[in-house]
Amino acid sequence: VLSAQVDMEFTHLRSHMKVYPCKNTAHCYASQKRFIDRTTLCQLINKVTDNLVNIHDKTGEFLLRLDDGRVIDTKGWAGWEWTHGVGLYGIWQYYQQTGDTRMRDIIDNWFC
């Protein structure tokens, strides 16, 4: 159920974005030539995702202390800042393209 809500949110966001076509098809990802094979790419994405969701600022070194008293965790996965949205959007895109339920579970768990 939560995934459907997230899907609606991302669909709404995408409806406001302009997508420009690739003018140089030799450099488009849609072309047949790849610089990395799919298996290696998926392994890298999984590694980056694992690092992203398991990062912790145990010392508070990366906390951003604002003049109004707010404290923002700029590195950890537990808070909310625009960087978390970028990560979640990337994970959602990967899930939509691959059907990797582990990625969907990461999103569901973040929102719970």
UniProtKB/TrEMBL annotation:
The superkingdom listed in its UniProt entry is Bacteria
Q: Which Gene3D superfamilies match?
A: 1.50.10.10
Biological process terms in GO annotation:
carbohydrate metabolic process
Keywords in alphabetical order:
Hydrolase
Among InterPro entries, the record links this protein to: 6-hairpin_glycosidase_sf, 6hp_glycosidase-like_sf, Glyco_hydro_88
One GO molecular-function annotation for this sequence?
hydrolase activity
Keyword Hydrolase assigned to the entry: answer is: yes
Q: Tell me which Pfam families the record gives.
A: Glyco_hydro_88
Name of the protein this chain belongs to:
Glyco_hydro_88
Species for this entry = uncultured Enterobacter sp
Which regions span the lipid bilayer?
none
